[in-house]
């Protein structure tokens, strides 16, 4: 922004989005993980993947991830999940939300396929 100001541009900075990590997984999240009722977990950034990995370990539910397929927006997000054992880990073709959701759609279609 400094170089733009130097060229005579007026700059107004506004925070449009801020995310703060939670200190622990909610009771509902722990319950769902333990019950095996989560089939897919989507990770939109390396930061959220790393935070989830840390919180799952702290809540002693890391072993529950072995029943879940992790879907990551990028290889970097996927790498942050390496500390947990997953049923499967998949990475979106391109690092954007439409590609991540397309990956989920494709996996759901595979599960519904009569050839399974």
Describe the structure.
A 3-stranded parallel beta sheet has the order 1-2-3. The chain is an alpha/beta fold. Helix 4 links the parallel strand 2 and strand 3 (88-91). The chain has 5 helices and 3 strands, in the order ααβαβαβα. It has one domain (26-112). It is extended, with a radius of gyration of 18 Å.
Keywords:
5 helices; three-stranded parallel beta sheet; alpha/beta; 10% strand; 116 residues
Judged by helices, strands and strand pairing, the structural class is alpha/beta
Instruction: Provide a count of the helices.
Output: 5
Query: Could you give a short account of the major beta sheet?
Result: 3 strands, parallel
Strand arrangement, largest sheet?
Answer: 1-2-3
Number of strands: 3
- Give the termini separation: 54 Å
Portion of residues within helices: 40-55%
Low-confidence stretches: none
**Oligomeric state of this protein:** single chain
Overall 3D geometry?
A: extended
Number of domains: 1
Strand content: 5-15%
Run of helices and strands? HHEHEHEH
Rounded mean pLDDT is 93
Whole-number radius of gyration?
A: 18 Å
